[in-house]
Amino acid sequence: MGSIALRNVSKVFGAHTVIPAIDLDISDGEFVVFVGPSGCGKSTLLRLIAGLEDVSGGKILIDGKDATELAPAKRRLSMVFQSYALYPHMSVRSNIAFPLKMAGEDQASIDRKVADAARVLNLTDYLDRKPRQLSGGQRQRVAIGRAIVRQPVAFLFDEPLSNLDAALRVNMRLEISQLHQQLKTTMVYVTHDQVEAMTMADKIVVLNKGNVEQVGTPLELYRRPDNLFVAGFIGSPKMNFITGEIARGHGAHTIGVRPEHIDLSTSAGAWRGTVGVAEHLGSDTFLHVAVDGVGTLTARVGGDFPVRHGDQVYLSPQEGRVHRFNDEGSAIR
Amino acid sequence: MATLHTRSAARAMMAPSVVLLLAWMVVPLAMTIYFSFLRYNLLMPGMEEWVGFDNYRYFLTDPAFFQAIFNTLAIVLGVLLITVLGGIGLALLLDQPMFGQGIVRILVIAPFLIMPTVAALVWKNMFMNPVNGLFAYLARSVGLPPFDFLNNAPLLSIILIVAWQWLPFATLILLTALQSLDEEQKEAAQMDGAGAWSRFTYLTLPHLSRAITVVILIHTIFLLSVFAEILVTTNGGPGTQSTNLTFLVYAQALLQFDVGGASAGGIIAVILANIVAFFLMRMIGKTLEA
């Protein structure tokens, strides 16, 4: 019901190529996250799917049918915007009912669907308020409510959580995931936050400068990054990259080791270094260690590892957890 | 202004301007009220005497008075109708991306920068003149007899001239309001299946309501006292067909030299303006609050 396919889709603004020819398949019911640094074209890609921008070349298939030339409303997609884009002079009820009203449904079925959506999203008590009387999270839910009443073939989310504070963001992340379990509708979600991508996605599409760097499940991307960009982008804190003599010893131009895959010892190990900064999170401690002849590496250790600024430590990468990259940045397997 | 001290300091600082403003308003108003109870004719200096409400009685029973009230309201409503509807239309057009947008916008604003007497004379002599005017030329070129606007439809002509002058202002305010409409809201409405007309009625118009209110308010204030356009085109005539309240007061004072009667007229104009303001505020106060 809700598959989306991009065939050779490109987008050019004047002389500036934002997206050079992308192929992508999103299958029915999947939760796909487009992730990448700002300016990588992920929002543009979403707007192309929504029909808010015209493609410069290629085809967009929705549900197997060519939708490249269809108007946004005819694609049966719903979108949740970064600013929520609620209609400020309408009550929550009218906001949610708006797409149904535009579709010309009769009042009884509009009322029923709005009540259903409000119940799912815990908005029943707020139906008669105006958007400006709601908190950020509630506004977000109204925007989602407006998207679900139409029963679209797919939902599009354009960085929906970036205007919320950290605690609420974690909450809404969970709510959106639960909503996806409940509705089983295809969702396409754009974010620059790799944590959101990792926690919510069935499939992550990593974009960089308009190119698809890698497509895969969160754990695939984490375990087997195709190149330096994906390796550096996925995972927090960032993967450590080491070039030079040590990398050549592993038969690569660059090697990458995640902070959580470094063993620390105060007595012996592969590399010796001095602790620069220790970030204590309670459960974990992130150590920024200045290693002789390598540079600063980040390592994750348990919360009770007894080191302080200036201490000497030894680091050793865990066997089989070292990622190797050639001089073009691609993974060597 | 949190503490008692800062509050009293603030009051002391405001006092000079408040006093000045009060003096500026209270003195002329008091003098006008005083004159309105005198028989005060410039042709008979030194013969002023107290006549009570006689001036008011004469002014209110003058047949020209009712004509003037009607004309005043007709000018206000007529011009408002043209400027608000035309302003919305022009603002929507100017909001579209097009070639030479900057120059077109300046041209649209231009009439507002022309002083009223000049604008009215341009209209009178270059457009509406039945012999030399552009409209007469156009009428003749399709074989119709030229229409003498200022003699046959004086009130309508004045409404047209004044509307032409005030249209740019309305357009400007509505255009800026239009540009502040959130792009994502428009896109959301588009995704929700709203066509161009629905987007206009459900999204644009409510968004513009505050700007429209401002336009109505400011226009009404200025349109109640239209004067220069009448003076240089029709002189209130033919008869009193294009005389509004302002012009009637002027005629009373400076054509009939009756300062007492004119003062009474002025006070009546003030009272009428306040009645209009009262209804206006009630009607649109809600919009401004929201």
Automatic annotation (TrEMBL), chain A:
UniProt keywords, alphabetically: ATP-binding, Nucleotide-binding, Transport
Membrane topology: Peripheral membrane protein
CDD domains in UniProt: ABC_MalK_N
InterPro entries: AAA+_ATPase, ABC_transporter-like_ATP-bd, ABC_transporter-like_CS, ABC_transpr_MalK-like, ABC_transpr_MalK/UgpC-like, Mo/tungstate-bd_C_term_dom, NA-bd_OB-fold, P-loop_NTPase
PROSITE patterns named in the record: ABC_TRANSPORTER_1, ABC_TRANSPORTER_2
One of the record's GO molecular function terms: ABC-type maltose transporter activity
Localisation per UniProt entry: Cell inner membrane
Top-rank lineage group of the source organism: Bacteria
Keyword Cytoplasm set for record: no
Pfam family, one: ABC_tran
A cellular component term, taken from the record's GO annotations: maltose transport complex
Chain ranges of the ABC transporter domain: 4-234
Family note: Belongs to the ABC transporter superfamily.
PANTHER family, sorted: MALTODEXTRIN IMPORT ATP-BINDING PROTEIN MSMX, MALTOSE_MALTODEXTRIN IMPORT ATP-BINDING PROTEIN MALK
Listed name of the protein: Sorbitol ABC transporter ATP-binding protein /mannitol ABC transporter ATP-binding protein
Organism: Mycoplana dimorpha
Classification lineage: Bacteria, Pseudomonadati, Pseudomonadota, Alphaproteobacteria, Hyphomicrobiales
From TrEMBL, chain B:
Membrane-spanning segments: 12-37, 68-94, 106-123, 155-178, 211-233, 253-280
Origin: domain of life: Bacteria
GO biological process entries: transmembrane transport
Keywords: Cell membrane, Membrane, Transmembrane, Transmembrane helix, Transport
Major site of localization recorded for this protein: membrane
Matches recorded under PROSITE patterns: ABC_TM1 (PS50928)
Residue ranges the record marks as coiled coil: none
Entry's Gene Ontology cellular component terms: plasma membrane
Protein topology in the membrane: Multi-pass membrane protein
ABC transmembrane type-1 domain mapped to chain residues: 69-280
Localization (cell): Cell membrane
Family: Belongs to the binding-protein-dependent transport system permease family.
PANTHER family the record matches: ABC TRANSPORTER PERMEASE PROTEIN
Protein name per UniProt: Sorbitol ABC transporter membrane protein /mannitol ABC transporter membrane protein
Organism this protein belongs to: Mycoplana dimorpha
